[in-house]
């Protein structure tokens, strides 16, 4: 390899093809194994939620106990089958999940799958906004911290990353509302849009993702209204992950500095800022891709507090409401769906990472 080639291209990743078969068969085996791992992951999570919830008693008594006479309560329990053996109920519930039947909520008599379809897109929209914030904030600041390593900007950014990650989501949300909504009056306090915009966007159906519907309407006022409502929730949830991205990018860019092709570029007089921006940047993104699946799980967990704080009516908001009402059928269904989403997301991220960096294959 010539010096010019070493400067323009990082060294190829070491491809681990295993003891048997070609690299292609190794990749196929890796994909198959990762896909099969989805099922035990979801099974373990669903099982834990089912038995932990049932430790408090049957869902009918939990939701309606004290509000119905004893004979009516017993009749409702019998009709729902909650007086049967717990293991019979468990295996029956597993069978329902495999057919995507998550039951019917006790408090408002809605199919749980309908609740998931109605509010899931709102949570998806919030998570996408938050990922954008995490990428915009975490990756550039991580590169700055690496370029200014062991100097005061690096120290400030490292402390900021710890604060981003360690600050409770609900506390950050309350402070953001107090400052930007109450004191300064710059942004809305809560909701996904004002009432007029919501009526207009829901009038003709739409996708359920307000930003797409607002853009499709062609009305810039609707677009700004949707975005202004999303800024504080997205910042609150996105900065949590931005702190993780900042630390990862900083650590990996600094590690890349020790590679031979970086030394070759430096010997040719390439500026440090260009080394970070051009040569050390792309290899540092691989760890970011591999942890996105875990961050999706973190964001879905944080969405419960974020949506409750900002009254963002998504799955997290509904989950908090059903927990307050002790509607454990709804809680089981929502948590099961979140488990499926997280497991599938991790599978997709692992496959993308395997195509980018063959070293992650078995």
Describe the protein's architecture and organization.
The protein is mainly α and 362 residues long. It is built from 17 helices and no strands. The chain has helices spanning 3-8, 23-36, 38-54, 59-64, 70-80, 86-98, 112-147, 152-166, 169-183, 195-203, 210-217, 220-256, 260-267, 272-279, 281-310, 315-324, 328-356. The protein starts with a helix and ends in a 6-residue tail after the last helix. Mean pLDDT is 81; it is low at 1-21.
Brief overview:
Helix 3 runs antiparallel to helix 17 and helix 8 (152-166) crosses helix 12. This protein starts with a helix and ends in a 6-residue tail after the last helix.
Could you say which overall geometry the principal axes of the C-alpha atoms support? globular
Helix content: over 70%
* Helix-strand topology string: HHHHHHHHHHHHHHHHH
Uncertain spans: 1-21
Q: Let me know the number of strands.
A: 0
Give the overall pLDDT as a whole number: 81
Distance between the termini: 29 Å
Which value, in Å, is the CA radius of gyration? Answer: 25 Å
Sheet/helix structural class: mainly alpha
